[in-house]
Amino acid sequence: MKKNKRTTPSKTLNPLWGGHYAKGPAEIMAKINASIDVDRQLYAQDIGASKAHAAMLAATGIISKSDAKAIALGLDKILKEIVSGKFKFSAVLEDIHMNVEQRLAELIGDPAGRMHTARSRNDQVACDFRLWVRDAIDALDVTLKGLQKALLYQAEKHSATLMPGFTHLQPAQPITFGHHLMAYVEMLGRDRARFEDCRKRVNESPLGAAALAGTSFPINRHMTAKALLFDRPMANSIDAVSARDFALEFLAAASICGMHLSRFAEEVTIWANPAFSFVKLSEAFTSGSSIMPQKRNPDAAELVRAKAGRLLGAFTTLLVVMKGLALAYAKDMQEDKEPVFDAGATLQLAIAATTGIVNDMKVNKAALDKALESGFITATDLADWLVRVANVPFRQAHHITGKIVRYAEQKKSTLDKLSLKEMQQIDQRITKEVFSVLRVDQAVKSRKSFGGTAPELVKQAVKDAKKRYL
Ligand code: ARG
């Protein structure tokens, strides 16, 4: 049996906590322990939070003003090094926090060692992570708004464009294309509201909770909270370092949003299918086949449809990591960042691609008109007419309409092309007035109940939505 390979202590002992260690970690320990490849993404938040912490330490007299100044200047320099790609990240230093602190020691010497006073990596990482999620929420709000804007543009343009509306993916009732798109504007509005609501709970500062119990130094947690634009410091130091529900809420909201995008993506793939041809996508958002020359595959939409799975995977991952974890911090929690970072980037990409698809898609009115001819899509209007004008109870009206539909089916006719005589043979009470509801345009125009599909309402809904969302 080979013994566990050990690393060379001089090269691998962590200078920040290796005081009571004589030997380096096993190679595989170093590998599983290091998180720098993932948490380097927190560099800006880490540096910002450290600056706020150092300024507070100076203001409360815990460190000297000159040390705080040296720390701030050193941190600014490190930020520049990282942004310009000159910074050398080291796995021996495990994570972003220790990489930054060690570099600071190289740059400014002793004062760097005072930066970590009254702080632990436990509250530090919770703070950085909250700042990252807050930034991600703010960025997502902008892109989601952009997608709503694209949908609103198409919805306005197609506020009177008729199409079959589906239930069970079977022709149900005629609607307008604009009305259908506006459904997504509303879903995205709720997605934005979910993120906004989540942001309230993200936006509390864990900084100063230290390892778990607070600190005996006379720190001012309100001051760092304010400097970092948090609403308040978190009330309980143990909760501050243990809580990850803020990240879970973010992932839950991201999963729901991804689900909405995937439904739209699925509709686009259906609409773009030549059997439907409701919309056409350009070469910009499709790809050809290497073997079938006729193909125009809606790849972007298919990928957006799939990303929902990845987002839900991220949520599941973190929820399972957190389940059953005793308070306070445990290293398990280092696994929190990868799913959240991935979800943030994935959702951004999916929203951007969807916005591209919405802008790209050309509506094929002829195909929509043709689709409206099948499925006896004004059958509900006929039944409603029997109730409203001929005073027939709805259940009976439903039955009579069913018979007329069957007759039309046999005759291979649409409802509005049947003669009055033919309809009267099925029910005497039908008069020529009925022709005022059998055409799809009439049916759509008549659906004027609040939130309905009548073109004038869709136009108004677009106007209102612009005020509410843009
Ligand atoms: N890299 C760690 C993480 O992301 C930072 C916190 C480490 N804390 C500790 N007590 N070892 O979770």
In words, what does this structure look like?
The termini are far apart. The protein is mainly α. α7 (121-157) runs parallel beside α13. The longest helix has 37 residues, at 121-157. The strands form three sheets. Strands 1-2 form a two-stranded antiparallel ribbon. Strands 3-4 form a two-stranded parallel ribbon. A two-stranded antiparallel ribbon has the order 5-6. It is built from 19 helices and six strands.
Question: Which short descriptors sum up this protein?
Answer:
binds arginine; 19 helices; 470 residues; 4% strand; mainly alpha; elongated; 60% helix; two-stranded antiparallel ribbon; two-stranded parallel ribbon
